[in-house]
Amino acid sequence: MKEFLSELIEIPGVSGYEEQAARRIAREFSPYCDEVQTDSFFNVYGIKRGTAAQQASDRPKVMLAAHMDEIALMVRDIDDKGFIRFTNIGGVDQRILLAQEVTVHGRENLHGIIATVPPHLQAAEDSSKVVKMKDMSIDVGLPVKKVKERVRVGDLITFCSPLVTMQGSMVNGKSIDDRASVVMLTEVMKELDRLQYQAEVYCVATVQEEVGTRGAVISTYRTRPDIGIAIDVTHGETPDAAKEDTHAMDKGVVVCKGPNMHPGLTEKFLEVGKEYGLECQIGIAPRPTGTDARSIQISRSGVPTILLELPLRYMHTTVETLNLNHIKAGARHIALFIASLKEGWQEWLSY
Amino acid sequence: MAELLKRLTEARGVTGNEDEVRGIILELAAQSGAEVSVDRMGNVIARRPGRTGGKKIMLAAHMDEVGFIISSISENGMLKFKPVGGIDQRILLSKRVRIGKDGIPGVIGVKAIHLQEPSERNTVIKQKQMYIDIGAHSREEAQKVVEAGDYASFDSSFTPFGDNKVKAKALDDRAGCAILLELLKETYDFDLIACFTVQEEIGLRGAEVAAWHVEPDMAVVVEGTTCADIPDVPEHMYTTRMGMGPAISFMDHSSIADPKLFQQMVETAENHSIPYQIKEAIAGGNDAGSIQKSRGGVRTIVVSVPCRYIHSSSSVMDLNDYYNTIALVKEFLKGCETR
Amino acid sequence: MKTLLAHLTGLYGPSGKEEAVRQAIQQEIKDYVDEIHEDVMGNLIAVKKGNGSGRKVMLAAHMDQIGLIVTNIDENGFLRFSNIGGVSPFNVLHRRVVFQNGVTGAVSYETELEEIKNLKLNKMYIDIGAASREEAKKLVQIGDIAVYHAPMADRENRFFGCAMDDRAGCAVLVETIKAVKNSPNELFFVFTVQEEVGLRGARTSAYSINPDIGISLDVTITGDTPKSRPMAINLGDGPAVKVKDSSLICHPMVKNLMIQRAEEAGIPYQLEVLEAGGTDSGAIHLSREGVPSGVISIPCRYVHSAHEMVDKNDLENAVKLLTRILENEIA
Fold this sequence. Notes:
The structure holds 3 protein chains of 3 kinds. Chain A has 9 helices and 17 strands. Chain A is of the alpha+beta class. Chain A folds into 2 domains: 245 residues, 3-Layer(aba) Sandwich (Aminopeptidase), CATH 3.40.630; 88 residues, Elongation Factor Tu (Ef-tu), domain 3. In chain A, strands 1, 2, 3, 10, 11, 12, 13, 14, 15, 16 and 17 form an 11-stranded mixed beta sheet that branches. In chain A, strands 5-4-9-6-7-8 form a 6-stranded antiparallel beta sheet. By secondary structure, chain B is α+β, with helices and mostly antiparallel strands. Chain B is 26% helix and 25% strand. Chain B is built from 8 helices and 17 strands. In chain B, a hairpin with a 5-residue loop joins β1 and β2. The radius of gyration of chain B is 21 Å and the shape is globular. The two termini of chain B are 31 Å apart. Chain C contains 9 helices and 17 strands. In chain C, strands 1-2-12-3-13-16-14-15 form an 8-stranded mixed beta sheet, with helices on both faces. In chain C, strands 4-5-8-7-6-9 form a 6-stranded antiparallel β-barrel. The chains are: A alpha+beta, B alpha+beta, C alpha+beta. Chains in contact: A-B, A-C, B-C. The interface between B and C is medium-sized, with 23 and 25 residues.
């Protein structure tokens, strides 16, 4: 599991350009499901037909969604000296960028550094001013001619930050949001193989979540599920954030409540957790969430949806920090929930 | 009539938890002889098949109201909360709320004026700093009756007000719901499908789903809308005027009225001498935004009852406007029979 | 191109009131297409049937333009207004505007305002020279929309005037309709409504058409004016192949196809990374199960002002590029 996460976060999968990540994910899904499909936008569908397919008439189709895309940068211009000007794809905190190491995906991959002015040349007040992204540039150490031969406007730039193991089961790295949840999808499939279940399960690794849950819009339309389960990350506790806005890093996955989630289904999910002694935390979202759940819920005639979240520290940075135990626990919880969808499951969805 | 409005506005139905309102509407719509169902989003769909059928006209009013969701419980038994839908944080202090399925009473408290520094009196308290007090002395005591994820609504009764007006919470859009229930009592040539939608206040989400499966030929949205004909608002920003009749929208932030339906609505009012006004702003949005863009597009028009102080604990509506809205939409629908 | 563009940009067509533009375009193209109709929203959809072997392609350019919508008429005959689409107070201040019936007015503001940087639309009004509410109401009703009054002018290859956004795109589509011969693909040319208020016409027409590929034609900003916001697009350097804007990330397949067709034919082009703003392809690509989509942009200075400026060569090269894309197989 850790090996797959480690490999996956290093594959570039910028929103809109997920093909390479999609291929790797499809390969990982393949042994654990009946069929793998990839659509024209590179959403990957791992389909498990269920262990009790003979009751096909009255079984739910469950769609799990975890997004494979990552936030990144994009070349906006190349200046006369060969420095690269850039913009962001997805929500990037400009304050983490200075002196960051990046890969510029031009005709060949180039190692780059986001340039900084040495402190010796700064005025005293400069260090308390935020440098704006539009004023930053990337140095790839090549003369302008060579840069322009290799790099064009619109080329992608990803961060260099491989997986690092920390104390206990904690790890950090880039794009753990939301590759950790994609890893969880494979763990759900493995768990399901140990259980009896009737549901037809579509494990979907979605694209373009970071730019507006766009992959979920089209993949849910295509899948037509009866039930949706979105898996994403949420904020883990840190000293600089309000306790009520964050969740403990060691107290289980977060089950989110609010208008975006189906109340009855969410209760059922929590009940299954209790029954099997799986620890959970409760999250609150008063608005449509920023996750795939936002779009799944209102697809076609409506899809009762639940949202499961992994606590993650330093979201949208290069050192996103996660507890691996939560991947396992969440996968088991989802698998047990799916197995509990038996005759009469429709009643759970009624109001 | 007042009884219907009272029942609907006093019911609690914060976005995401429209259960109580849905229950009442299911009961009343069924009584009027409509075929009722609830879709997977929680919208109530009430169908009245037409005499000749064929055309499908959708009416929409939203069941949900703005309110709060409990986010956590402090050690001292106070509840932290988040607003659901657009609420001005400055109206919240010293208001009563009802929490959860059982309607536990609570108050949004604030430190007494005596304890405030003079400068604090001119400082807006941020919603994030506020709390709901239910009289519990500890987290444990509070947890017996409330949990994170419970919804809370304003606690405000329906009462007659001034001259032929009423005061209540949630007139946006229970007024529309009441009007739809009235309209459902009649049979038309075409199939009438009244949709009582969820989640309008957080992005017109219920209507998007309802329009998808209803697949109407056209739609009329009935709203409770902004009415700012009050002191210190320049006249050109009143939006609507109380007592001047139903407001017909040419455009708002979510949709542009279908020009033919707009014309037809105005002519209906004039031909039947029903007072009406044109909504003098494009502020706000409503379910029409979702319905108009559904599938290949749906002709849509919005008629609203002007309501002062919407999205607060006490909104005010003129009953003449309310009755005239019923009359106008009814005549409009009759007019659709021959077209 | 010049005559067509002057004609189209001179027509009245704010979002929701696109009739005049629709009629003009219909006249221009009706003899060059196999089918033509108007849908519920007012989109004009023209079809050129292919030979059956290719893909179903939707081409979109929006007919609507930004405008000022009257929300109130005061007792002295001044009109208060709100915006249709992205209207900056500074772009409309002291401009001449015109209503559908030809009534013109001047846009001004409440001069008690202390700092002009605080100028907001609700502090502004249109003066049509009426002396009273009654007089004004004979000319203009609440809900009527005014647009810039700015007939097109030109110098050498440069055209400037209002509504280049997106009549320039419409003109490119019209010329492409005339130029395309023997396409293997089934082509749906859609002149859309209500783009400026949220890509609404494109959304519903894409649903109805259900295409395999979407391409829209719209304008984009340039970075070639004094101290402009950085943008690697120059007027006259060729049509731009969009990489992204805030409404979509263009599908790599469509983007690469555009680049390939431009390069093999030696058509100049630029690559566009737009940080804010969106266009019809944003709605098209999320239709149903997803429609791989791209955008050909026409570089345009001073977008959403009364003097949007485009370059003739960019327009003609856009027609060449689009024609070449459509006349060939699309993988």
